[in-house]
Amino acid sequence: MIKNITCVILTKNSARNIENIRNVYHLFEKIVIVDDYSEDDTVKKIEEIDTEKRVKICRRKLDNFSSQRNYASSLAETDWVFHLDSDERIDDMLIRELHMIDGNINNTYFIAFKVKRKNYFIDMHIGTEDKIRLFNKKKLYFRGEVHEDLDIKSEDKIGIIKGAILHKSYQSIQDYFRKLDLYMKLEEERLKQSEKGWFYILGRLVKRTFEHFKTLIKNVIANKSFLKPLLWFCLCEAYDLLYFSIFLYVKYFKISK
């Protein structure tokens, strides 16, 4: 069992993903779960799994993802944390890698590790991206109110671990639009408190489109296929263009008036 790394999970109506949490329970000795006041029996099912009383469960209203993740990290007893979403699973290779580095994690000169995340849309693999999920919470923290990222500096030493996180976020079209609606509400709250205008929002659109295009090229090369990576790209762009260009611009002007 992994003892020097705490697994951190955010939940919200995650009862259908309880098997993912059960798998983590048998892998990590220390687990922190921050629940955004789930309306289903997420917390009850986690408590049923936690027969050894090793899971620290806290309820906290989601204001933005960065503060939620930073708060969850602060609850960990260890310096090193591994962030996982309830709709994500760890493959066998990554499990072996985590076991291998656990013993010496506090002596490494790296402050974080990258891992591949395979994204699925209704059980179809549509793309792979690199994510930093294992890091020293004393050295790094999340920033960004809606789309959270770690505050990485150019001089920071980042390692790479083998294996992958399997991300099955959208099990149906309804899931896609449900998450879209959540992000829209978070962005609306951010805009209410922000003085940023059109150029800032357009800059974000251009930056994210460029990032999506780079990932598209990487996935085409890695998969030697164009259709599935293109689907992933289109989903990302549809999300951003619909979300930022139409919904948020309208809401921004409503807020400004």
TrEMBL record:
| Gene3D superfamilies, per database record | Spore Coat Polysaccharide Biosynthesis Protein SpsA, Chain A (3.90.550.10)
Query: What are the UniProt keywords, alphabetically?
Result: Transferase
Glycosyltransferase 2-like domain: which residues?
A: 15-98
Can you name one GO molecular function term for this protein? Answer: transferase activity
Task: Please provide an example of a Pfam family that matches this protein in its UniProt record.
Answer: Glycos_transf_2
InterPro entries xref list: Glyco_trans_2-like (IPR001173), Nucleotide-diphossugar_trans (IPR029044)
Name-wise, this protein is Glycosyl transferase family 2
Q: Which organism is it from?
A: Caldicellulosiruptor hydrothermalis (strain DSM 18901 / VKM B-2411 / 108)
Q: Upper taxonomic classification of the species?
A: Bacteria, Bacillati, Bacillota, Bacillota incertae sedis, Caldicellulosiruptorales
